[in-house]
Design brief:
mainly alpha; elongated
Amino acid sequence: MAIKSYDLVIALTGGGPGTSTELPATFMYSYTFTRNQMGIGASSAVIMLMTIAAIIVPYLWSELREKK
């Protein structure tokens, strides 16, 4: 849920106060577009993708395989 809640955090708090509402998605957005550090933003996006894939792929494999 922390990955998907970017819009909720920005709409309700505007990303503040301080770093109390810092999420992976807000971290990636702020480094990529606000601070113009494309390397850190891109690497954090890839880490988020790999984390989600590590959870989703085994789940989908177990759900979609044939039941014997």
